[in-house]
Structures are given as C-alpha cells and as structure tokens.
Amino acid sequence: MTENSRKRSKPPRERAVPEGDRKNPRDSVLAILVDGRSGREYYVSVLDTFTIGGQAYSVLYNYEPDDGSRADPELVIMRSWKDENGEQVFSSVTSKKELDRAFDIFFERYTDSIMRPSP
Question: How many structural domains does the chain have?
Fold first, then answer.
C-alpha cells in the first residue's frame, strides 16, 4: 500500500473511509483503506488497536467474504493516527525492530484475552 504524498520521505499512508450504516453488528470493525497513490480500495477488519510509547498501532486483516476457498487471513500492523481533518490515517511500519515490538505487544494482548475467563 502506498501514498501519493507531498514528502516522499514519509512512509506510505492509507486513509480509512467510513463504511456507512451497517445493519450487521459484526461489521462494526470493517473499514475500507484507500491507497493514496493508486486509489485502490482494501477491505480490512480491525482486530486490535494499542499504543506503544505514544504511537498508536492498528492490527488489521484483509476482509473477504467467506466463500470457503480463501486461505487464512494475514495480519497487518500499521501505525495509525488522526490527521488535521480528523480522518483516521494508517502508515506502514518500515522498521523490523518496531514491527517486531508491535507484534510482541499484540501477541501478548491476544494471549491475555483468550486466557481470561468470560464474565
């Protein structure tokens, strides 16, 4: 995913486009990412969001309707923030060290959530 940015030194960014009125409550985490350079749309589901040292991260996976033929979803971890217009923006994590740290935090949060007994 790439960006048509004014400064090429910034990592690629994506903008989330609101999905609109959803009739199914399970769709509440569905978002559309629009590639800033190509305009291509990516349907994703937001699995988790968290902050490390003031930087917010979102864990996403490609959303495709289940027709029985797709492979397991791949997770994507992206930086996220609100821009000056209040729009949610996503950026690729380009540092392996940063990505590893974010994955470790996500995995710890995920493990804790499945080990916690249901209320």
Answer: 1
